[in-house]
Write a structure and sequence with these properties.
Elements (H helix, E strand, L loop, with lengths): L3 E12 L2 E7 L14 E5 L5 E5 L10 E6 L7 H8 L5 E4 L15 E6 L3 H13 L5 E7 L8 H5 L7 E5 L11 H4 L6 E6 L1 H10 L8 E5 L13 E6 L4 E4 L5 H6 L18 E6 L2 E2 L13 E3 L4 E2 L3 E5 L5
Parallel strand pairs: 7-8, 7-10, 8-9, 10-11, 12-18
Antiparallel strand pairs: 1-2, 1-6, 2-5, 3-4, 3-6, 12-13, 14-16, 14-18, 15-17
The structure holds FE2/S2 (inorganic) cluster.
The site of FE2/S2 (inorganic) cluster (FES) has 14 residues, from loops.
């Protein structure tokens, strides 16, 4: 990766527990361009590398803005960034990539965010508005007003009539009902970023939509892991090689550790890059890509695991 050294020109607060970081080149020059929905990989003070969506309008050519929620129960990435990085510090940042790109669509957009999943969605909304596109609507689900990033802006005059904000007070019984929004495929494209539960709900309610019109982005790479995950084996055809996949390690990483050069991008089960042929065994599908009719034949190896002690995979679909 080609790392850039960028300066934290400003650190702010977008909501309770959500810090914003404006990253600029020390020279003030333009940064590599990005498109709405893009993310950057940041190398953190503790050595970890994490992906963060860019939340500003891509037309701001000299700045990347990150919105980062301090995840007390996370794997330490957000805590290192929020607690240890201050204005004036330098961070190593890889150029933007986009696995959640906003496609041009005359019929418009339904943009759905949960919690800190608002970061790519607000970039899209700002970009659309600033470019005169008005046929979009943002649905934004959070616990309460205090935890709602960018609340004043999204409630402000620019977005009037284009944003629905729903607070559930942390009670699943008070979750927003998306069925009236998604019941009839409208020609719009749906973009959804948020916790796994929200994305699963949207996925379930858009099963009858064209799959090319529904897009997901996961903001937490750890969410696909479960505490009771166990080790299983992967057998590869045609050569019969067997690789163990320990708990806490993805199939993708276990195979890469043996020196295989495999295609992947989002590594969160949303982009489709790591689609691999499933020859035998019962998969535990955890992605948001495969349709029900594909699950017996394919597996997304960046997140999915096994229900059976062994899976047989054909990597020739991936290499
Ligand atoms: S790398 Fe994106 S779905 Fe696996």
């Amino acid at each position: 990766m080609d790392w850039m050294k960028l300066r934290v020109a400003r650190k702010g607060q977008a909501a309770e527990g959500v810090a914003t970081f404006e990253l600029r080149a020390a020279s003030g020059s333009d940064l590599p361009a990005f498109t709405p929905g893009a993310h950057v990989t940041v190398r953190l003070p503790n050595g970890l590398e994490r992906k963060y969506s860019l939340c500003n309008d891509p037309d701001d050519r000299d700045v990347y803005v990150l919105g980062v929620k301090r995840e007390a129960n996370g794997r330490g990435g957000s805590i290192a960034l929020v607690d240890q990085v201050e204005e004036g510090d330098e961070l190593q940042v890889a150029p933007p990539r986009n696995d959640f790109a906003l496609v041009e669509n005359r019929s418009g957009y339904t943009l759905i965010a949960g919690g800190i999943g608002i970061t790519p969605i607000v970039s899209m909304a700002r970009h659309l508005l600033n470019n005169g596109v008005t046929n979009f609507h943002v649905y934004y689900c959070t616990r309460d007003p205090a935890s709602t990033a960018f609340l004043d802006e999204l409630r402000g005059p620019d977005f009037r009539g284009r944003v629905t904000i729903h607070h559930d007070q942390g009670d699943p019984a008070k979750a927003f009902d998306f069925w009236p929004v998604l019941e009839k495929p409208s020609g719009r494209h749906v973009y959804c970023c948020g916790p796994r539960g929200l994305m699963d709900a949207v996925r379930d309610m858009t099963g009858h939509w064209p799959s090319s019109a529904v897009h997901f982005e996961a903001f937490s790479e750890a969410e696909a892991q479960k505490p009771d995950d166990t080790m299983f084996r992967v057998r590869l055809v045609p050569d019969g090689e067997v690789v163990e996949v320990p708990a806490g390690v993805t199939i993708l990483d276990a195979l890469k550790a043996t020196g295989k050069d495999l295609a992947s991008s989002c590594e969160s089960g949303t982009c489709g890059t790591c689609r691999t042929i499933l020859v035998a065994g019962e998969a535990d599908h955890r992605d948001l890509v495969l349709g029900d009719d594909e699950k017996s034949r394919f597996i997304m190896i960046c997140v999915s695991r096994a229900k059976s002690p062994e899976l047989t995979l054909d990597l020739r679909s991936n290499l």
